[in-house]
Amino acid sequence: MLNILGKATSINVRKVLWTCAELQIPFNQEDWGEGFRSTRTPEFLALNPNGLVPVIRDADFVLWESNSIIRYLASRYDGAWLYPADPLARASIDQWIDWQAADLNRSWSYAFLGLVRKSPAHQDAGEIAASLERWTTHMRILNGRLEATGAFVAGSPFSLADIPIALSINRWFGTPFDHPRFPAVAAYFERLEQRPAFARYCRNGQP
């Protein structure tokens, strides 16, 4: 059985849990990370030298990096409906997955850590304001994309890209500040509410 190492409150672990739910993959989940078992132990570092969650063990195969994991799961466990083999369809999905990791997440990092996590190292008001401005810029891009598709991030069907994107949007709604109104993003979240895994692993009260 697939083993998932990482606490269920982690946004990156939740990507993996949500993907498993969509693909109906049985799994065991072990709590690792802050507040649980340390990821700095030799045992964990032998699996992921970065000391970060999630990590999966699929029989003898070990993999870390959440976006690599969800791509692997969709490819390994009959997830062509979620992550098609067609190069054009897959490229569009990969584009938005990579954008979430490289651009969207980096924009909200400082503001989220300061306003939600209350990190003492992230309390500079100017830096928080700059982070919120960058975040808003990226959310405007996303709103425009969702206006264009009228459905999901990569096009008409729900795809693997929607899992990381939705988790980042959930952080947007869960961070206390005066949010600009993005109607297409709000409508997108209403569409996602029809998916049981969305309620369990994304809009579940965890930022």
Structure write-up:
- This protein is of the alpha+beta class.
- It folds into two domains: 75 residues, Glutaredoxin, CATH 3.40.30; 113 residues, Glutathione S-transferase Yfyf (Class Pi), Chain A, domain 2 (Up-down Bundle).
- It has a four-stranded mixed beta sheet with strand order 2-1-3-4, with helices on one face.
- Strand 3 and strand 4 form a beta hairpin.
Count of extended strands:
4
CATH topology of the largest domain: Glutathione S-transferase Yfyf (Class Pi), Chain A, domain 2
Write out the strand line-up for the largest beta sheet, numbering strands in chain order: 2-1-3-4
Strand content: 5-15%
Average pLDDT score: 97
Quick one: CATH class of the largest domain?
Mainly Alpha
Number of contiguous helices: 8
Give the domain tally.
2
Cα-based radius of gyration, to the nearest Å: 17 Å
Order of helices and strands: EHEHEEHHHHHH
User: What composes the largest sheet?
Assistant: 4 strands, mixed
Query: What is the general shape?
Result: globular
Pfam family, one: GST_N_2
EC number: 2.5.1.18
Family: Belongs to the GST superfamily.
Keywords: Transferase
In a nutshell, what does this entry contain?
Pfam families: GST_C, GST_N_2. The protein has 207 residues and is α+β, with helices and mostly antiparallel strands.
Key descriptive features of the protein:
Glutaredoxin; Glutathione S-transferase Yfyf (Class Pi), Chain A, domain 2; 4 strands; globular; Glutathione S-transferase GstB; GST_C; glutathione transferase activity
